[in-house]
Amino acid sequence: MRRIRANAIAILTVAWILGTFYYLWQDSKPHTSPAAAAAAQTRSRSHGQKAAPGRLEIHRDDRTIPLIVTQPPRAEQQVHLLGGFDEKAYLAGKQLKPGDDPYREHAFNLQESDRLGSERAIRDTRHYRCASLNYDTDLPSTSIIITFHNEARSTLLRTIKSVLMRSPPSLIQEIILIDDFSSDREFDCQLLSQIPKVHCLRNGRREGLIRSRVRGANTATASILTFLDSHCEVNTDWLQPMIQRVKEDHTRVVSPIIDVISLDNFAYLAASADLRGGFDWSLHFKWEQIPIEQKMARSDPTQPIRTPVIAGGIFVMDKSWFNHLGQYDTHMDIWGGENFELSFRVWMCGGSLEILPCSRVGHVFRKRHPYDFPEGNALTYIKNTRRAAEVWMDEYKQYYYSARPSAQGKAFGSITDRLTLRRKLNCKPFRWYMENAKNLNNSKHLRLLYERWRLGSPHQICHPLIITLETCNASKSFLYIQVN
Ligand SMILES: [Mn+2]
């Protein structure tokens, strides 16, 4: 009898252990299921590069604070926040006409955005422990830089107002708007400049995100730069964690967890706190699960998550560090690829990248770019990513070209200046980025894979950092990367 009971206990224990391992293994797999891929696609910055994602699936974290973030400001606060700016007149100046397709101009439901108004209560999506963290009382202030091109008035104003409502006023030195030559919007800049702390610059021709941001950074007067997209809503205490980390170490470049604002009904949805930035060899940004070892080592959910790349739309960086590292590659056009160039450069030239789980900013993720690329969407993306690959990826650029054969022979301009910069800054090789910034050596698993590759294992392992399930077709491979 006793033996039977002991056997039963042993069997149950083994089953429990196997179950636990299966659960962890499932959890650490890259996005392979359509639902996970759809969620990843929704969160990815590749607005409209691929087919539309399916059902929106967001990890809802029950441990977050189920509270409303803010009460709408009272009338006297409203005056204080917006000064002489006439919000009603501004919003009424450009409205959807009856019968117009609400998605046509902005690739999100404009009718719903307009209906919401400029301030609303949203859910505090942070882990509950974030609310009890303390930050220095003497944090330096920041210049917020927002570039826009034909942005809807209601989303742009909501971005600006959420910053004013949910940041300690002493931390906001100024909000710099750069109107990137929006069509028939000559007056937007003039009107928005009436809001206290807001300055607006308008480009005389279409420059794109990259040169517009550099223009904004050059006029910024604070020692810390905060780049923000033009269709966001910042959440409670979004700014303090980021400024604190940059104040402690000016070489850190930090970004928030980017929550999802539904493009259909503008619902504010919590994003998973277990993701970091990644990419495939064709240089498409992807969200990926934090590696299992790193996940298991995380005992405190408020701790920063080191990330190989950032999504690029929202981040905080010390201004002198931004300038020291060569700002941006200003020969990149319109949008795309600049986040890889910046991420590689930061890691390889002595800095680091982090996602801070206690900072949350909502963003409207879209399925397509609502604006035109003068040179065409694909050509611009190729030019920009090719510049990033040629300057930073050394011998690894061959993987980029095999994943994106159409990039061969496409013009990408001169990279002499950027190569000179790389030499001047004495940046490490891309191999170092792959092996150290992603910490190959600390992973037994990857070391094993490396050995198998070195000994000539066929098919599955094309390279220690590229693992495929089928053949060594680079376009189907994914990068197995990690940072501890
Ligand atoms: Mn965006």
From TrEMBL:
Pfam families listed in its UniProt record: Glycos_transf_2 (PF00535)
EC number from the UniProt entry: 2.4.1.41
Chief location: Golgi
Keyword Signal: no
Protein keywords: Disulfide bond, Glycosyltransferase, Golgi apparatus, Lectin, Manganese, Membrane, Metal-binding, Signal-anchor, Transferase, Transmembrane, Transmembrane helix
Enzyme class: transferase
Gene Ontology molecular functions: carbohydrate binding; metal ion binding; polypeptide N-acetylgalactosaminyltransferase activity
Endpoints of the signal sequence: none
InterPro entries per the UniProt record, alphabetical: GalNAc-T, Glyco_trans_2-like, Nucleotide-diphossugar_trans
GO biological process: protein O-linked glycosylation
Pathway stated in the Swiss-Prot or TrEMBL entry: Protein modification; protein glycosylation
Catalysed reactions, semicolon-separated: L-seryl-[protein] + UDP-N-acetyl-alpha-D-galactosamine = a 3-O-[N-acetyl-alpha-D-galactosaminyl]-L-seryl-[protein] + UDP + H(+); L-threonyl-[protein] + UDP-N-acetyl-alpha-D-galactosamine = a 3-O-[N-acetyl-alpha-D-galactosaminyl]-L-threonyl-[protein] + UDP + H(+)
All residue ranges annotated as the Glycosyltransferase 2-like domain in the record: 143-322
Cofactor: Mn(2+)
Domain of life: Eukaryota
Subcellular location: Golgi apparatus membrane
Transmembrane segments: 7-25
Membrane topology recorded in Swiss-Prot or TrEMBL: Single-pass type II membrane protein
SUPFAM superfamilies xrefs: Nucleotide-diphospho-sugar transferases (SSF53448)
One cellular component term from this protein's GO annotations in UniProt: Golgi membrane
Family listed: Belongs to the glycosyltransferase 2 family. GalNAc-T subfamily.
Record protein name field: polypeptide N-acetylgalactosaminyltransferase
